[in-house]
Amino acid sequence: MAPKSSSSFTFTKPSSQSASGSSNTVSTTASSSISALLSAYTNQTTPRLKFIDAFLVFLVSSGVLQFVYCVLVTNFPFNAFLAGFSSTVGQFVLTASLRQQVNPENKVEFKEVSHERAFADFVLGSIVLHFFVYNFLG
């Protein structure tokens, strides 16, 4: 019998077989979930929404790149950074709104809004956004 310690907790090292088995199960579950998600996205999403999603990915990567550049290199013309970053964020918001309005699954919420009207709102909002961004640059 082992001597009693003052601690009520006992720690045991897990065997390497059980640890590798559980991590293998987690990675298998994660990879199968990701593959199921990608196959459902490619099979059920319309090409119009895929195009909008690609633009959203571009906007996110552009915003991340601008932020990383500002942090690592310089932010000397700070108003230029603010204008560019706010333009990216604003365009992302407008594009996400467009995606929500043209998604066929949301016809109940946007039954009075046609796809042409949603796109016209998107274009008008983008023009107004970029007008303010241009004026912010000075």
Q: If you had to describe this structure to a student in words, what would you say it looks like?
A:
- 75% of the residues lie in helices and 0% in strands.
- It is mainly α and 138 residues long.
- The protein has a domain at 46-137.
- Helix 2 runs antiparallel to helix 3 and helix 3 (78-102) packs antiparallel against helix 4.
- The longest helix is centred in the N-terminal third of the chain and has 29 residues, at 16-44.
- The model has no long low-confidence stretch (mean pLDDT 85).
Total beta strands: 0
Helix content: over 70%
Q: Main beta sheet: strand number and arrangement?
A: none
| Topology pattern, helix = H, strand = E | HHHH
Task: Compose a concise summary of this entry.
This protein has 138 residues and is mostly helical.
Structure characteristics:
138 residues; transmembrane; single chain; mainly alpha; Dolichyl-diphosphooligosaccharide--protein glycosyltransferase subunit OST2; 4 helices
Secondary structure: elements and pairs:
Blueprint: H1 16-44, H2 47-72, H3 78-102, H4 115-137
Helix pairs in contact: 2-3, 3-4
